[in-house]
Design goal:
The protein has six helices and 13 strands. It has helices at residues 58-72, 103-108, 147-150, 203-215, 242-246, 260-276, and strands at residues 14-24, 55-56, 81-85, 92-95, 115-116, 122-123, 133-135, 138-139, 159-166, 173-180, 186-195, 230-241, 252-258. It has a five-stranded antiparallel beta sheet. A two-stranded antiparallel sheet has the order 2-8. It has a two-stranded antiparallel sheet with strand order 3-4. A hairpin with a 6-residue loop joins strand 9 (159-166) and strand 10. The radius of gyration is 21 Å and the shape is globular. It starts with 13 loop residues before the first strand and ends with a helix.
Length: 277
């Protein structure tokens, strides 16, 4: 746990800007929901922007990182799970506690509203705190879909994967199709981490840990069936202290063109120095 307490004072020290690329090592499916079905289209289309280009919503990327960190740090326990959705068949529970040293809730924020605990009763949210991490929508880098790739795609930018669910008694097949962004596609990522007190020095390392966990897990739907393997590279980390916004002081480039391992090493080296500056 961190050194945060209920008396920790919050005042902007600076912002860490993480930018880079996310590479699809296998087909990626981040669903658009049933409301976007088209006649003759795949059963499960991917989410697209107004120009018809696939993108990864910041909420999807942020939520997956949070889920993996909750599991890795042992926070996904019934006593600290709350419902954010109780629709039948779509129950969603996340970790949330009122402990001031809870790094997951510090990084991702606490909801100020009342939530029902998975173990029963209400979570009052009396210790609501601002989220330190903002994750923005990740647009597709169009040039990453090469002419050679397009020749084998079902659409200009996506492919359709056919799957079958087999009845265990009759062996009857139930075919379905899944639209995916193909392996080799790249998305441009941007995340902003606010450091509001000296105790926040532990948060950059926690974020990088979440990204490393994601590289050995899956993003989007169908991860257990081969979809959604991603890696991060060409990463750039920039520090913008309070004076950058107040007086136009220069920003500081912490690392550029790095892979996650190099980024993790650099973050461990400079985090304490940044919040102490």
């Amino acid at each position: 746990m961190s050194a945060h307490t209920a008396q920790t004072e919050l005042k902007l020290i600076g912002k860490l800007i993480l930018e880079g690329e996310m590479l699809c090592e296998s087909g990626l499916h981040v669903g658009a929901g049933k409301g976007s079905l088209e006649i003759g289209g795949a059963d499960n289309p991917v989410v697209k922007d107004a120009q018809g280009r696939p993108y990864v919503p910041g909420s999807s990327l942020r939520g997956r990182i949070r889920s993996l960190l909750e599991q890795a740090t042992g926070m996904a326990v019934p006593s600290e799970l709350v419902y954010i959705s109780k629709r039948k068949g779509q129950e969603v529970r996340i970790h949330q506690s009122d402990r001031p040293d809870d790094e997951i809730c510090i990084l991702f924020g606490r909801s100020p509203g009342r939530m029902e605990k998975a173990s029963g009763g209400d979570e009052g949210g009396a210790q609501a705190t601002p989220a330190r991490l903002s994750v923005f929508d990740a647009p597709l880098i169009p040039g990453s879909i090469t002419p050679q790739m397009r020749e084998n795609l079902d659409d200009e930018l996506t492919e359709v994967k056919s799957e079958n669910a087999i009845d265990r008694i009759t062996s009857q097949a139930n075919p379905r199709t899944l639209e995916r962004v193909p392996a080799g596609a790249r998305f441009r990522i941007r995340m902003v981490l606010d450091l509001l007190c000296a105790e926040d020095a532990v948060l950059p390392a926690l974020l990088v840990q979440g990204l490393r966990l994601l590289e050995d897990d899956a993003l989007g739907g169908g991860g257990s069936r081969g979809n959604g393997r991603v890696t991060f590279d060409n990463l750039k980390l920039t520090w913008r202290g309070r004076d950058y916004y107040a007086t136009g002081a220069d920003e500081r480039e912490v690392v550029s063109g790095a892979a996650l391992a190099a980024l993790q090493s650099k973050v461990a080296e400079v985090s304490g120095e940044l919040v102490a500056a």
